[in-house]
Recover the amino acids of this structure.
């Protein structure tokens, strides 16, 4: 089935990109003003080698004098990610569920560097609110899991449920609310995208768009005008106990295709320009079936006799 999709979707992708290119040349869109979008921030921390040399999958060149719409850009990001004009269908089929293994180096609140190995399992629902995500983390000091099950968040340690610290929950929610999937699934989640501007940072041409979800949370995306890869995103959050918001920036590097879909194998997270986390994917596999009990509260499962 996947081989058949690869054949037809590759042809369809070329057709989409060819059909969208004249629109980008011909259409004229109003330039956003300060009342609709704040000035673009500096991208920073993006290396030239993060722009892939192989441009075979890149969309057609865009007229530099034209201003594409935010939806044009978002849809091209989708098409490149899935190598398909029918990108949503491809991603729903291939990446509906999966398992990812990796390694995280992060800075703790005490200022120490912590090494973490993780295993993340997920099942996507019709919207992000219906998703099921479980991240098992192992540090030199302990081993535990964080679970998001259709809006409910809890932790599991030694088979027993616990309530995570507020800062841990906030970090977990931010990772799901401000991520690549947030942009790839913007229509399913009822989010809106807004064009900010086109900029050149560190000799890289970028399209900058804002995504606002139903909760009025905004994420800014920096998209390569050459490859339509997302190179970075930014957002602001006020952590529990903090008296002012912190500007976070996550950069994406080392893009590779996994089961014919695009995945960044290295990400770096900054808080007010200070690096606090670097994550590296070791392996990722999509299409693995998982029992719902994997995401259940162990106490609830016991009470129900499972």
């Amino acid at each position: 089935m996947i081989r058949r999709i690869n054949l037809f979707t590759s042809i369809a992708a070329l057709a989409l990109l060819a059909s969208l290119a004249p629109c980008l040349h011909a259409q004229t869109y109003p330039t956003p003003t300060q009342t609709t979008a704040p000035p673009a921030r500096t991208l920073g921390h993006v290396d030239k080698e993060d722009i892939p040399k192989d441009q075979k999958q890149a969309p057609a060149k865009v007229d530099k004098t034209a201003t594409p719409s935010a939806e044009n850009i978002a849809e091209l990001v989708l098409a490149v990610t899935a190598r398909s004009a029918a990108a949503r269908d491809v991603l729903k089929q291939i990446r509906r569920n999966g398992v990812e293994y990796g390694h995280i180096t992060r800075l703790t609140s005490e200022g120490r560097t912590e090494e973490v190995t993780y295993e993340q399992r997920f099942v996507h629902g019709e919207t992000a609110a219906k998703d099921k995500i479980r991240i098992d983390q192992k540090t030199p000091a302990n081993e535990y899991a964080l679970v998001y099950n259709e809006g409910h968040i809890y932790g599991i340690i030694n088979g027993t449920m616990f309530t995570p610290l507020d800062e841990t929950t906030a970090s977990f929610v931010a990772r799901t609310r401000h991520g690549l999937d947030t942009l790839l699934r913007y229509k399913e989640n009822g989010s809106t995208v807004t064009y900010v501007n086109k900029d050149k940072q560190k000799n890289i041409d970028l399209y900058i768009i804002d995504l606002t979800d139903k909760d009025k949370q905004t994420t800014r995306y920096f998209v390569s005008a050459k490859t339509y890869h997302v190179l970075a995103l930014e957002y602001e959050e006020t952590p529990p106990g903090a008296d002012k918001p912190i500007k976070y920036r996550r950069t994406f590097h080392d893009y590779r295709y996994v089961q014919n879909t695009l995945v960044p194998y290295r990400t770096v997270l900054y808080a007010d320009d200070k690096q606090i986390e670097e994550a590296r994917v070791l392996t990722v596999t999509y299409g693995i079936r998982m029992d719902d009990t994997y995401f259940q509260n162990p106490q609830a499962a016991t009470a129900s006799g499972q």
Summary: DSSP finds six helices and 13 strands in the chain. Helices lie at 2-26, 70-82, 87-94, 166-177, 180-184, 298-303. The first helix runs from residue 2 to 26.
